[in-house]
Amino acid sequence: MRERVQKFGGFLAGMVIPNVGAFLCWGLITAFFIPTGWVPNESLATLVGPMITYLLPILIGFTGGRLVYGARGGVVGAAATMGVVVGSSIPMFMGAMIMGPLGGWVIKKWDEAVEGKIPTGFEMLVNNFSAGILGMLLVLLAYNLVGPIVASITAFLGAAAKTIAEARLLPLLAILIEPGKVLFLNNAINHGVFSPIGVAEVKEFGKSIFFLLETNPGPGLGLLLAYWVFGKGMGKQSAPGAIIIHFFGGIHEIYFPYVLMNPLTIIGVIAGGIAANLTFLLLNAGLVATPSPGSIFAELAMTPKGDFLGVLAGIAVGAAVSFLVSSPLVRRYSGNVDDQSGEDFERAQQTVKSMKPTKAQTYDAGNSETLATNERPVRKIVFACEAGMGSSVMAVSVLKKKLSQAGKTDILVVHSAVNEIPQDADIVLTATGLTERARQTAAPGTRIYGVQDFINTPVYDEIISHC
């Protein structure tokens, strides 16, 4: 079940994350040039409306279609998205997430149905007109049916969000958000749920608190500080570096293993999230666009004029509460950790197994029951994460540095979304919870490693020794 939710969430995020740059562009223009912005400009402010109404939904629709069926799917997906855009008065992000993939799927099925049946010399004619005719039908469907339905759903969600906010229940969303993040549903929560609501609020109010709920780095910072101060062994030693990567780099995945190895600390990050959300609500704080990644720099860049106190206060309160609640839990856990070895003796055998993922968590992509035995030369290593733009980017830099130090500079190391692993990859590294999805995506014979820590994993040394 969790894997299916992750896969669906990953697909939603895969439509949004490649376009985050365009969202940030729109957010910066909004923050600077609207009447309440830093440098109000009536002429330049006219860019805000068309970009949110047309550009961003069509980009999502194109990306959704491309995910299903390449560039041809992207073109039909973008055309189909235009039907929901024109047929509604609200930004159609949810509609684009429906029509984009649907357009890609329809043209894919058409091509499969007519493959080998088109007379020689008529291929281009049939291909172009089939895309055009199917695109037209999808536009009409979107304009007359999908658009109104999505508009009704959006209005309902907006009203529900407003009711939750007015009832002061918004902070309690942290009870769902923080466990969801640790299960690698962070991108699905942020880009699939909160971003569409936030964008609609920005159009009406100029900012939205929904952009802060998942991206706030405060709760994770508090947890990592607790490990730094009260932890022992690996947790304590690695916490300072993790703090820098999490808070300044915006890679929230870095603190998930700290929760997973001591699950009770989820109480701390939930408490931090509730306190932070309550602070945002009381101070009427919000952002103009989703900060991606969730770095303190991105948070500040998306903060509208006059909201810095509220945003910074919420982040600080979230970190402080998370630290206070997590500290006794970390101290209690650390009491079972040996000072010299840094290992919990009661869990030593299980820990040793999990810390030797080089063998225990290696899969042959063609047969999960058999460990990889293919010793072909390694030419390409792929780091795969949920969206291909978070922890995997950081890990690429780490491994490139290690390979360079070992004098092995002829190996290509790239990052990718777990759903888009290149078929020519020789080795794939991914988070432990994503190994099954990586196995389904990678080519048969690819060696797949599930790792828990992209910074200090022992897998790197074994891979380098085999290269």
Write down how many β-strands occur, each being a DSSP E stretch of 2 or more residues: 5
Strand content: 5-15%
The shape is globular
Major sheet size, sense and barrel closure? 5 strands, mixed
Radius of gyration, taken over Cα atoms and rounded to an integer in Å: 24 Å
- The helix-strand sequence is HHHHHHHHHHHHHHHEEHEEHEH
Poorly predicted sequence stretches spanning 5 or more consecutive residues: 348-373
Q: Portion of residues in helices?
A: 55-70%
Class by SSE composition: mainly alpha
How widely separated are the two ends? 37 Å
Average of the residue pLDDT scores: 81
**Total number of domains:** 3
Please tally the helical runs, counting DSSP H or I stretches of 4 or more residues. 18
What strand line-up does the widest sheet have?
A: 1-5-4-2-3
What does this 3D model show about the protein?
The protein is mainly alpha-helical. Helix content is 63%, strand content 5%. It contains 18 helices and five strands. It has helices at 2-16, 20-33, 48-86, 93-114, 123-166, 174-205, 210-213, 218-230, 233-248, 256-260, 266-282, 296-301, 308-334, 348-354, 357-360, 391-405, 435-441, 459-466; strands spanning 362-364, 380-385, 412-417, 427-431, 447-451. Strands 1-5-4-2-3 form a five-stranded mixed beta sheet, with helices on both faces. Helix 17 links the parallel strand 4 (427-431) and strand 5 (447-451). Helix 8 (218-230) runs parallel beside helix 13 (308-334). Residues 348-373 have low confidence and may be disordered.
